[in-house]
Amino acid sequence: MSRPVSGRGSGTEEIDLAPPKTVYVDNPHAPDIFVSDISGLFMTGGNVAVTLERHRVNHGKPGSVRERVAAARLVLTAQAAQNLVVLLNTFLEQHGLSVTDAMKGAQTEQ
């Protein structure tokens, strides 16, 4: 989509009003983060912050117990969080992991 614009030049110039195309660029150096569980969620400035945790044991210390350690914090715009929920639910359903059944199980455990 474009429209003619009068300029100082020798005639009419066209300005492209279409949004720029977005290209995905894969980063082979992006870190993989293993997560055992989700510690918590909170809203901040219209964004959803998710604290991710992993379980660890200090094998160098006799009698140590399993610890819950924050592995990363993921902050998403509300729209990105909604997209993640939809995509993740679809993906899990396609792989035979029913989100509805998991939610029913969580309700009976409480």
Describe this structure in words.
Helix content is about 25%, strand content about 35%. By secondary structure, the chain is an alpha+beta fold. The chain has one domain. The strands form two sheets. Strands 3-4-5 form a three-stranded antiparallel β-sheet. A hairpin with a 2-residue loop joins strand 3 (about 35-45) and strand 4. The mean pLDDT is about 85.
Structural class: alpha+beta
The profile of the biggest β sheet is: 3 strands, antiparallel
Question: How many H/I helical runs?
Answer: 2
The rough form would be described as elongated
Query: What is the total tally of β strands?
Result: 5
Percent in strands: 35-45%
Radius of gyration: 24 Å
The structural domain count equals 1
Strand order across the biggest sheet?
A: 3-4-5
Q: Report the end-to-end length measured between terminal Cα atoms.
A: 56 Å
Order of helices and strands: EEEEEHH
The portion of residues assigned to helices is 25-40%
pLDDT averaged residue by residue: 87
In the predicted model, the low-confidence regions spanning at least 5 consecutive residues are none
